[in-house]
Amino acid sequence: MPDDPQWPTEDDDAESVAAASQPTVQVNRPSVDQPTMRLPLAAVLSAPSTQEPPRSSPIRSAPNATGPGHAAPGVPTAGSGGSGRPSGDTAGGKSHGAIGPEVGQPRAVPVRVEPKKDQTRVVPRPEQRTAELSVPPGKTARVDQLPHLEPSWFDQQVRSDRQPRPEQTKRVDQLQGQAPPRQEPQRQEPPRAEPARPVPPPPRQEPRDLPVTGYEEEPEDRLADEPRKSRKPLFAVLSLLVVAALAGATIYAVKEFGGAEAIETRPPAAPANVQPLVKAVTAGAPAPTPAGVKRALAGPAGNSALGTLTGSVIDPASGTALWQQGDTTPATPASSLKILTAAAALLSLDKTDQLSTKVVQGAEPGTVVIVGGGDPTISGAPGRSVYPGAATLDDLVGQVKAKGPVTKVQFDLSRYTGEPLGPQWESVDIAGGSVAPIVPFMLDGGRLDQTNINGTRTGSPAQAAADAFAQRIGAPAATAGTAPAGAQVLGEIKSAPIEQLVDNMMQISDNVLTEAIAREIAIKTGNEPSFAGGVKAVRDVLTKNGFDLTGANFVDGSGLSATNKIPPKLLTDVLTTAAKPTLDDARTAKLRPLLTALPVAGGSGTLAGRYDGTAAPGKGWVRAKTGTLTGVNALAGMVVDVDGRVLVFSFMSASNRNPETEVRPALDVLAAALRGCGCS
């Protein structure tokens, strides 16, 4: 048949006596009865001749080749000792050209290649020497899967001493697809991941990715029929996109932040004109009536736990008195008196004013003097303070250290005059955490535990603060002294602004801070910086601003003294002015921060833990200043009712009932009743 391969026959072996003594390789199909193709072993394993371009072979192994003219170790080659080839021929023998006899060329002795379960054996005939090649399990490749990087010697036409056939010679992988007449059932190859195919597909003409050698280093999926698609185009596209994005971002940044415009210096914008207003939650809210408020408060005001109850309720939008009960009768306000001190501070002091503490050069070399500036909020332990925005002692020490060594520390308390404790104050209140001696230099309001609002305070806050300064600067214990006139300032720290100090004193009801602010009002108004001078200054400022202080008699600014007496109406008058819906009144703009300084029911300050149970409807809606002394409880502030109307109130109770479980909850219910009032 024209397509039959030209296989050497047994008769051809007689013509190649010279090559019979050489070890030969017989390439067989898996069946032992199929025709064989014999090749000289030396010719297959030796390096190619320089007379023809080398051609790749599926049997040649790159690691065994030692270079041109050298054979693999242990395998005799043509042209070497023991072969029939003259030694004068080109090293490595003739290159592997067409299969078939040539004039003067010996024939190869046949051998068989048999597949096994885990390897492939090359088996010569019994009378011949053998050479066995093994392929690791799982890495075996069929002949038709071997890549064709360059034409193989299998691709050459068969040449013989006879005239070659005109038909093109078949390759080994093509021959495997044809069955000879005596073919037995074909054996299956060792188990592979894919099912065995009886007829392999025709060989692909395009170059494959893998070389013939080195299969043990390549992944198994590289031997599949379909070549893996390269991801290089995808990576290239992604890289271009990233580069384009970076380029765009760079151009944007240069345009947005660079260039001539980036170096222009523009003046800062003018500060916003802030005018805080208390507006109705609902537009056109119905105005409450005295009768409606009276009905709403009838039940809560009759609670016997309140004892003697006095107070008033006012609509700040209209100025109408909605409820009155002993509102002009003086009563003990306790800490609700702080409303008056806070109002006087906002009306007389600049809201941005700060309290300054300085260290100046002493009269002797190495001596420094701490000049108390009335700031009780200085923090002795940064991060552990109940006063937001407080200056720190460490800052002051650092400034002074930078000026030179210090051998002696003194402190000057001349800013204040008079007694450090107020009239009718009790010394037990110091240990109880309510107060400390009022001096112009101290740390953390005299507290021993900087974070405990009601913790124990020291009886000598100035000495303790000065000693802390001396210890940190490396000097002996401090002593009292006086700063020289016009002395050089070595260090200075400042408190938070007055507006923030007022807010802080109202939220935590701090007595020491309140008294310090009262003295600052006294200094500003030309009064003596003492308890008496502070009280006089507060009264003078309130009177000057049109508030009626008839019946008001108080001896301190914090309300700690039980002898203080004021009518509830005075508190509601001040709160009404602060809560007016418009700023037509000049006092309203100054007093507006007073409303935001009030603790929020169930949310902040001294009201954070209150307004549970029956008083819960007022949570978040009531804002008020508390007051507590033995047998006295007070609550004064503002609330928004369900109709969206702002109401101002003040309640004072004189009762010997339990303040925590009875009196204060009763006051909370009273204010919450105003929240639920639809009192039109």
From TrEMBL:
InterPro entries in the record: Beta-lactam/transpept-like (IPR012338), Peptidase_S13 (IPR000667)
Keywords: Carboxypeptidase, Hydrolase, Protease
Composition-biased stretches (Acidic residues): 1-15
Gly residues: compositionally biased ranges: 79-95
GO BP annotations listed: peptidoglycan metabolic process; proteolysis
Molecular function GO labels: serine-type carboxypeptidase activity
Polar residues composition bias: residue spans: 22-34
Alphabetized Pfam families for the sequence: Peptidase_S13
Keyword set includes Hydrolase: yes
Residue segments, region Disordered: 1-227
Keyword Phosphoprotein part of the UniProt annotation: no
Family: Belongs to the peptidase S13 family.
Protein name per UniProt: D-alanyl-D-alanine carboxypeptidase / D-alanyl-D-alanine-endopeptidase (Penicillin-binding protein 4)
Native species: Lentzea albidocapillata subsp. violacea
